[in-house]
Amino acid sequence: MPGVGARNLPNILVTGTPGTGKSTLCQQLAEAHGLQWIEVGRLAKESGCLEEYDEEYQCPVLNEDKILDIMEDMLSEGGKIVDYHGCDFFPERWFDIVFVLRTDNTLLHDRLTNRGYTGKKLEDNIQCEIFQTILEEARESYKEEIVHELPSNSPEEMESNVDRIGLWLLNWKQDNGVL
């Protein structure tokens, strides 16, 4: 994959515990800035990258190697917003910036319950947020200066996040001679 300098637009990773607002944020960013939104879960399903079903968590298991092979060429072009609840298996070179969405535990519990999460799946996702699992995973997987934590509790915070990322995108374009 060519280096960052070969891309006309950056690649952005938006990650966080399920229910933190990743898809909503990514959709708004894609619409506002003309970037391509890659919803990894959907792409995996459409591309046959899901393996056996995990009964305990009530979800299919992702074949990480297969999805990475599919995504490699897509990300080499730049201009992508990748949306997924995990981040440690993506190559560091793919992303110019990583945003980890965080949500208040009570609010997250309500969001996940409304999605039908129960039992161990619900408990583990709440604990994931409490213990900052995704944030720590991002910090361990990417350079510290590209990992940013964003609150995602309200429509106002969502709007602020869209604006903040839009400003970052503008600065990236200026810094890379794209404007």
TrEMBL record:
Its EC number(s): 2.7.4.3
Gene3D superfamilies: P-loop containing nucleotide triphosphate hydrolases
Region annotated NMPbind, chain positions: 39-62
Localisation per UniProt entry: Cytoplasm; Nucleus
Binding site for ATP: G19, G21, K22, S23, T24, R115
Enzyme class: transferase
A single MF term (Gene Ontology): ATP hydrolysis activity
Major subcellular location class: cytoplasm
GO BP, sorted A to Z: ribosomal small subunit biogenesis; rRNA processing
Keywords: ATP-binding, Cytoplasm, Kinase, Nucleotide-binding, Nucleus, Ribosome biogenesis, rRNA processing, Transferase
A Gene Ontology term for the protein's cellular component: nucleus
Reactions catalysed: ATP + H2O = ADP + phosphate + H(+); AMP + ATP = 2 ADP
Family from the record: Belongs to the adenylate kinase family. AK6 subfamily.
PANTHER family for this protein: ADENYLATE KINASE ISOENZYME 6, POS9-ACTIVATING FACTOR FAP7-RELATED
Subunit text: Monomer and homodimer. Interacts with small ribosomal subunit protein uS11. Not a structural component of 43S pre-ribosomes, but transiently interacts with them by binding to uS11.
Main function: Broad-specificity nucleoside monophosphate (NMP) kinase that catalyzes the reversible transfer of the terminal phosphate group between nucleoside triphosphates and monophosphates. Has also ATPase activity. Involved in the late cytoplasmic maturation steps of the 40S ribosomal particles, specifically 18S rRNA maturation. While NMP activity is not required for ribosome maturation, ATPase activity is. Associates transiently with small ribosomal subunit protein uS11. ATP hydrolysis breaks the interaction with uS11.
HAMAP family on file: Adenylate_kinase_AK6
Protein name, entry field: Adenylate kinase isoenzyme 6 homolog
Native source species: Artemia franciscana
